[in-house]
Amino acid sequence: xxxxxxxLALLAxxxxxxxxxxxxxxxxxxxxxxxxxxxxxxxxxSGKPVKEVxxxxxxxxxxxxxxxxxQAEQMYVQYFIPAQQRSSVPILLWHGGGLSGVTYETTxxxxxxxxxxxxxxxxAVYNSDAVERGRSGWAxxxxxxxxxxxxxxxxxxxxxxxIGDGPGSYNKDPAKARLMPGSQFPIEGYDNFTKQVxxxxxxxxxxxVAAYTALVDKVCPCVILVHSQAGQFGYRVAQARPxxxxxxxxxxxxxxxxxxxxxxxxxxxxxxxxxxYIEQDARWPTIRGNGLKFLEAIxxxxxxxxxxxLPKVGIKGNSHMIMMxxxxxxxxxxxxxWLRGKGLTR
Length: 346
Known about the structure:
Radius of gyration: 21 Å
Strand content: 15-25%
Number of helices: 8
Number of strands: 10
Order of helices and strands: HEEEEEHEHHHEHEEHEH
């Protein structure tokens, strides 16, 4: 059943109360934690010249033959299982483009991130570094990855992620930077945020979908929470494994699934969350519009799809990096209340 704006506003009110009551000073009791890699394939390279490499100053050079078998396109996953689980399924956190699982860990200004928030709510949490990011490692290009990586300047996220007020708004001095009016992004932590940014490739989507699908096959049924670029991955994996995905939460998804397979999502409850300042952005009105059209197609197939525009429910000032903004716990509480309403947590 489609939820009304009044219902979503009530969720936001409940989220405020839940966020205020969150026991942030309490220790987190874990039953277990660990990590693993999933997915990937072997690739054979040949025809490369042998090189002599000095690995350590003062050492002895060694010949390195780059011809042979390589492991590529695997994905790193870290998991945390609370001592007292309040959901029978885990929640999987999938980050956006040019980022890694650090997105959901400590916020740039030192507060607990969504990983800890959902752990405190009794969820088993699986946090990944997608293919080519962080501890997943990356492969040779163009031999394996077919394009060169994309690197971002320090100014780029400030202006593109609706933190700063348009082009030229970034300044190394936070006092001189032009923030969006009422911005909730912790500007004093912006340097820490840009230290998290990693190179990304534009030719690894299929490998990433394959790795996420392998993760779902390994640990699900589950809830999947995606951000930005991972929107398309979440939707495509849910379309491939609709029996294993009990809910999909998409935080400002930049991409979506196959429009010819929307019927596969009719039994997957979906929530899309959008932050502030979208109307005045050059790109986000179109991206959001595409997301709403995709959800409407799901509804026409009998599916359940809710949308929360945070300013409309009284949660204002959010950038594209909602999970890093000062009111991130309030938004997490709204998501938690929505999941509770779907019967997925106690």
